[in-house]
Specification:
Elements lengths: L12 H34 L5 E4 L3 H5 L4 H4 L8 E4 L2 H4 L1 H16 L2 H7 L2 H12 L3 H12 L1 H6 L2 H28 L1 H4 L2 H11 L1 H11 L1 H29 L4 H22 L5 E3 L2 E3 L2 H4 L1 H16 L2 H10 L3 H20 L3 H8 L1 H23 L2 H20 L3 H9 L6 H23 L5
Antiparallel strand pairs: 1-2, 3-4
Helix pairs in contact: 1-14, 1-15, 1-24, 5-12, 5-22, 5-23, 7-10, 7-21, 8-10, 8-21, 10-19, 12-13, 13-17, 14-15, 15-24, 17-22, 18-19, 18-21, 19-21, 20-21
């Protein structure tokens, strides 16, 4: 073993060139490996969107006996060997965290609903519904009271249609008012977001990619910088002690530390600090306002949209409750449409038939409300207001909560990235050993 005092730093002839080449290539190797570690680490975070691998018989029960950390490897608990991006694999969990850490602090269900301007929604529903109303009434009456409807003179039919049309704004306004009054019971943003993220895991990855695009690129770049800088002391130690196992072992340390430093650089410290007169703060936190705008656009355009809120209200887990509530609320308005003739109409068509006609019109009004909420152009207009709300509230979040918007996606799985860095660092050390041999003088 060559001690530090016996090291001869002068290289001569071929051995000298080999010695210098061995020493100088170590930082280059560790720099390239650091770049590859962070580049492939980002790939592991976001790709692939769905699990890719093979099913191994007997692996599923065996996986349940493994340590909890090992069970977090995507696909393992389902008996598969392969990989799915960490963020897409945790899509539902990410949705839950996104609501708890960010969206719940951005606004309540009532805030979201009011931001969509219920009065404008009601006016839009009337615009969509009104042209089809004569045909709708004709269809319902022909089905429920064909003889009475056929015997009515044309002016009588027109009077019925006109009376219902006059009541339409009141009917639709009652729909939006009733939803607004009970919105906290009918709309569950957390469940809505979780279900949407679970169904679209690629969307979760896309949001995180775009919000943190600059920091993610910097993380790859700093992988080379940190790897190169860490490679300098590695080269010195390897030359001093010239043991064959040093480079692989130190490669593990370099790989682990490179990832750790990259993560720290992006997210820490939360609050600005002065270090040697230089202002230091996590890179992601430095551009909170800009990142908040990107996040708000993604949330308003793809997650908490007018169409998705309407779909959740009318077709989601509480859709039956919503529709029943609206139908009950609409009955008085439909009675008003009959006006002073209501008792006569009830007698003429029969109480049971009148109830069916009234319920049919109410159900159709609810259905047309859903159709209007699916209008893409109208939805885009309303999303601008939602985007303003989410952006403003996200910009006001404390740094700790803002960081959670990104880091919560993979905090519990960071060990996989560090372990991946350690494995690649070990492989880099072995590769250098195979190419250049053992160092030392």
């Amino acid at each position: 073993m060559v001690t530090a005092l016996e090291v001869d730093w002068s290289f001569t002839d071929v051995d000298g060139v080999r010695g210098w080449l061995h020493v100088l290539t170590i930082p280059v190797f560790t720099g390239v490996v650091g770049w590859l570690i962070n580049w492939s680490g980002l790939w592991m975070l976001f790709s692939p969107e769905r699990f890719h691998g093979v099913h191994v018989p007997g692996l599923k029960p065996l996986a349940r006996a493994l340590p909890r950390k090992a069970q977090e490897v995507p696909g393992l608990l389902q008996g598969g060997l392969g990989w799915q991006g960490i963020v897409p694999a945790r899509a539902a969990k990410m949705g839950s965290i996104a609501v708890d850490k960010v969206i719940a602090k951005v606004g309540t269900p009532r805030d979201f609903y009011e931001q969509l301007e219920p009065e404008r929604i009601a006016a839009h529903v009337v615009d969509v519904f009104e042209p089809d109303l004569p045909a709708l009434i004709d269809e319902i009456m022909r089905r429920e009271q064909p003889r009475l409807w056929r015997d009515l003179p044309p002016w009588g039919r027109r009077a019925v249609v006109r009376r219902v049309q006059d009541q339409l704004p009141t009917v639709v306004q009652r729909i939006t008012d009733e939803i607004g009054e009970h919105i906290d019971q009918l709309l569950d943003p957390k469940l809505m977001v979780i279900e949407h993220f679970r169904a679209h895991p690629g969307l979760v990855a896309a949001i995180f990619r775009e919000v943190g695009a600059r920091e993610l690129r910097l993380m790859v770049t700093f992988g080379f910088v940190f790897g190169f800088l860490l490679g300098v002391p590695v080269a010195v130690v390897d030359h001093w002690f010239s043991a064959w196992w040093l480079l692989p072992l130190l490669g593990v340390v370099v790989g682990w530390v490179t990832n750790k430093l990259g993560m720290w650089l992006i997210f820490e410290p939360l609050e600005p600090r002065r270090v040697l007169g230089v202002r230091v703060q996590g890179l992601f936190l430095r551009r909170q306002d800009e990142a908040a705008e990107v996040y708000a656009r993604n949330i308003a355009d793809d997650v908490i949209t007018l169409e998705r809120i309407g779909d959740f209200l009318l077709n989601g887990p509480r859709g039956d409750l919503t529709q029943a509530m609206l139908t009950r609320a609409l009955r008085p308005a439909i009675d008003d449409a009959a006006g002073p003739l209501l008792p006569v109409v009830r007698v003429a068509v029969g109480a049971g038939r009148f109830e069916r006609i009234r319920d049919d019109i109410a159900v159709e009004a609810v259905g047309r409300t859903e159709l209007a909420l699916r209008d893409p152009a109208f939805g885009r207009e309303q999303s601008l207001r939602m985007r303003e709300l989410v952006a403003r509230r996200t910009q006001e979040l404390p740094p700790a909560d803002f960081v959670e918007m990104m880091r919560s996606a993979f905090r519990e799985d960071e060990w996989m990235l560090y372990a991946h860095g350690a494995v690649m660092g070990f492989a880099g050390g072995v590769l250098h050993l195979l190419v250049f041999g053992v160092g030392g003088a």
